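Hi P.,

Sorry for the delay on this. The queue was packed all week, but I finally got your sequence through. Input first:
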Amino acid sequence: MTAAKEEESALQEREWQWCLVGNIVGGHLYGENKELRRGNKQFRPNAKVFVNLVYGGMGHESILVIGLPRGSGKYIEIVIARKYVENFRVQKCSSRPF
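Then the structure:
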């Protein structure tokens, strides 16, 4: 058995793994008039998102996240500005929700 297949089978046997997660900001200032917006266009305020560290474009100013969007029950994967995510932490995650 090759090393890659052994590693893949070990990952399949594991029920969980460590994952970087965060929350969408509750409110932020937007536009020239500095109006207060809640959440962002894709996610509601305080929505939990899973951060994918594979893509960290332009010094991690933009990050790839996975989460439940507004008005849908299916997970999406999208690149958003890092300033819209706060409260980063490491949690145990299972692969089942995706």
